[in-house]
Specification:
- With 349 residues, the protein is an alpha/beta fold.
- It has two domains: 130 residues, Response regulator (Rossmann fold, 3-Layer(aba) Sandwich), CATH 3.40.50; 157 residues, Response regulator (Rossmann fold, 3-Layer(aba) Sandwich), CATH 3.40.50.2300.
- It is built from ten helices and twelve strands.
- The strands form two sheets. The chain has a six-stranded parallel sheet with strand order 2-1-3-4-5-11, with helices on both faces. A six-stranded mixed sheet has the order 7-6-8-9-10-12, with helices on both faces.
- Helix 1 packs parallel to helix 8, helix 2 crosses helix 3 and helix 4 runs antiparallel to helix 10.
- This is ABC transporter substrate-binding protein.
- Belongs to the BMP lipoprotein family.
- It is found in: Cell membrane.
Amino acid sequence: MRRITRIATVGVASAALALTATACGNKSSSDAGSDSKEAGAAIAYDIGGRGDQSFNDAAYAGLAKAETDLKIKGSAAEPSEGESDADKVQRLTELARSGNNPVIGVGFAYAPAIKKVAPKFPKTTFGIIDDSSVTGKNIANMVFNEEQGSYLAGVAAAKVTKSKTVGFIGGVETPLIKKFEAGFAQGVKETDPSVKVLSQYLTQPPNFDGFSKPDLGKAAAQGQLDKKADVVYAAAGLAGSGSIEATAQAGKWAIGVDSDQYSQKGLAAYKDQILTSVTKDVADSVYNLIKSVKDGTPQTGEVRYGLDKDGVGLADSNPAYTKMADVVAAVEKAKKDIVDGKITVKTTP
């Protein structure tokens, strides 16, 4: 697979120009779809696109693994700035007509488009990450218990804060991102009720710049730092990189999201201040769906990834984190209590 050009902002290419590789087994452009065992696989990126060091890059990692392990060819399509649902419909249609199977929409924003496109390609499996609202016989809903991983981040934040003030930054105020906030705030408060949690969202729907503009994340983090926050957790996609930058430059602790951001090359300059990251196994969810199609038993319906199966978790790549024995112990205890049902994590703030 030819690599996709890295981007720093949304909108470097239209859907028609953003396909970066052709899939194998393209037998027909008919709406009937293609043979699931012969077709390649495709992903359509969310806001921020490839190179966000977070959500989209995790999806790409799953596709890349499938190419290597399963010997399939992949395609990928970038979002365009200010695009409509009609643009997403066109993108998914083009990917399916090119013979790709499965076709995966990275993010809940693809729900309306998949609802329209999936019935037209009954032999093609469509996957959607972070959404369970749209269903169908050929649709797999890959969803995560983000609130559980965020609870662990809250535990860690409450244990390391010295100012007794921590921050949460959400990219766009949607039900999905509120799950991150809810879990984080609960983890903080149940670990140390005296710690104050500052919460802020960068944009409101239908403005989704809060997932794609690093300057917004940087400004929000600076505002929280000015209010004495010494730990800042951002669930904001590409915008979160701005939050990490501001927090690291201030010598405070940043908590990453989706991918293990300590290990992301684009954030290497700030890695020492990335305490940990709330991870979602988006890569495996993409890989598992592709493998299921190749094996002839495609996943459909809800496929949930929670703390019990390490579908979400807390990264421990930073040596500074692993040396904090009391923090690690508190996080491990909280993880066990969640898995054992002793702690129920809220999904709304």
